[in-house]
Amino acid sequence: MGPSAPQDIFSQHFNVNRGMRERLNGHPGKVIWLTGLSGAGKSTLANAMEMELHRFGRKTYLLDGDNIRSGLNRDLGFSDADRVENIRRVAEIARLMLDAGMIVISAFISPFRAEREMAKMLIGPNDFLEIYVNTPLRVCEERDPKGLYRKARQGRITNMTGLGSPYEPPTAPFATFNGSGEIAVEQAARDLARAASLI
Amino acid sequence: MGPSAPQDIFSQHFNVNRGMRERLNGHPGKVIWLTGLSGAGKSTLANAMEMELHRFGRKTYLLDGDNIRSGLNRDLGFSDADRVENIRRVAEIARLMLDAGMIVISAFISPFRAEREMAKMLIGPNDFLEIYVNTPLRVCEERDPKGLYRKARQGRITNMTGLGSPYEPPTAPFATFNGSGEIAVEQAARDLARAASLI
Fold this sequence. Notes:
Two copies of one chain form a homodimer. Chain A is α/β, with parallel strands linked by helices. In chain A, about 45% of the residues lie in helices and about 15% in strands.
């Protein structure tokens, strides 16, 4: 507003900011960034982590293909350019929710190091925790929860991460989760939340 | 995950949902959609409303040009098509934050009835409260907080809402706020928050 408007007094000095929202929430915000192959167990771990955090009264939100690809990013496909834009927007939303004082869990394949680095820079390195959901391609392909590997083997889809398109593992993740199924996911979720000082 | 993965047991049944987040927050989520000319006082009212809601312990977030145009929507300009996409994305973010259990205040010109209707449908009519910040163009142009009207009169920008591009007032807003400056904005913010049963 212009300096002559009486409302200015309020708009300049009384904005609610991240610190105030975090104090109200009773905990700092954070972004937990899960990365790994399709079928690695990202959504499973993300859900278990959100349950655990919620149980401790943390204000959480989970960003994944279910609520992003069908909504905000419904205009995007799976070309390299669209994948980069997909992750850019996810990072921007995570940044807004972080500013809102929330603990955001992001569960996308996010196969390229460069785009995860972009996300980290947009969000801020101190608030960005990368977790590598490390499950062998063989196991992911056996599970094939969305039937994507089968379609890719049949040539019906291209650019499948792990087959036609590369997956670049994190070089220095905050933590690595073995998604092969031998470890109880609830225990892993608790351990990760504790390691990140979130509970 | 595929039905053979042991993690499935958890991912299917223990997802945190909107109702759980709202219970944790202690209040329902809602989207307050402010619309009006540039300089009408949307940001001022939005800030005052957020302050008032925050004071009552409500979990809030404010979406406006400052945090959207410079981030998520930095790839968009001001053509009619880009304005529609701008509002679509704002509505999608508001929907996600509503799902996160928050009270979202959106402060964009959003000049077209059709795009506000799209936002209402995306968000859900019951959770969408339209507030018309009604300030005469003459007053807005006098304030000209961003110098946009002057630039538009000089022909340096086109599509300025109110001059080169139309503003379509709401036909049945939840409430109308006279942004001319005669009314104390804090009192108006409180009245609006009460009228919307948010405090």
